[in-house]
Amino acid sequence: GALSPLQVLASPLRRTRETAAPLANRWGSEVVVAPALGEIRIPDRLADRADRIALLAGSRWADVDVVVRQWRDALVDCLRAQTEDSVVATHFFAINAVVSYASRDDRLVVFSPDHCSRTVIEVDGDTLRLVQRGAEASTPIA
């Protein structure tokens, strides 16, 4: 069904703000930029970005650098802090981080969300629960 006007959050990156803007405009609101919804933080000491992403894609949360775990913790804390239902425009790894956390799956990548797919997470206190995983596609992660 149709959603009623909700708060619209986005990562600081232009592509997510541009994705979120038409919905916010339709609902007569502004996009709220939340830095914690930003792209995954990849330790600089790893090789080039494509190699780092490929390495992380096959990783487990227990094995990643503390910088990556801190990024996920900030992301989860941001969602826990929301006091109202919201629409969030964010990134491949962020969606996967939330889904893996909510479903207690230790993999960094648990599925390949399609562009503009809708994943639904319920926040109840400190608990995140996966309600609906978004449509999947063969989304490149580079």
Task: Give a description of the structure.
This protein is of the alpha/beta class. Helices cover 34% and strands 15% of the residues. It contains 4 helices and 5 strands; from the N terminus they run βαβααβαββ. The strands form 2 sheets. Strands 2-1-3 form a 3-stranded parallel β-sheet, covered by helices on one side. β4 (120-124) and β5 (127-132) form a beta hairpin. The longest helix is centred in the middle third of the chain and has 15 residues, at 66-80. The radius of gyration is 15 Å and the shape is globular.
Q: Could you name the key traits of this structure?
A:
three-stranded parallel β-sheet, two-stranded antiparallel ribbon, 34% helix, 5 strands, alpha/beta, 142 residues
Secondary-structure map with pairings?
Blueprint: E1 7-10, H1 14-26, E2 31-33, H2 49-57, H3 66-80, E3 86-89, H4 92-102, E4 120-124, E5 127-132
Parallel strand pairs: 1-2, 1-3
Antiparallel strand pairs: 4-5
Task: Give me a quick take on this structure.
By secondary structure, this protein is of the alpha/beta class. It has helices at residues 14-26, 49-57, 66-80, 92-102, and strands spanning 7-10, 31-33, 86-89, 120-124, 127-132.
The largest β sheet comes out as:
3 strands, parallel
* SSE string, helices as H and strands as E: EHEHHEHEE
Poorly predicted ranges: none
Estimate what percentage of residues fall within beta strands.
Answer: 15-25%
Distance between the termini: 33 Å
Find the structural class using helix and strand composition: alpha/beta
- Average predicted confidence as pLDDT: 89
Helical content stands at 25-40%
Strand arrangement across the biggest beta sheet: 2-1-3
Rg value: 15 Å
| Strands, count | 5
Put simply, the count of helices is 4
Outline:
globular
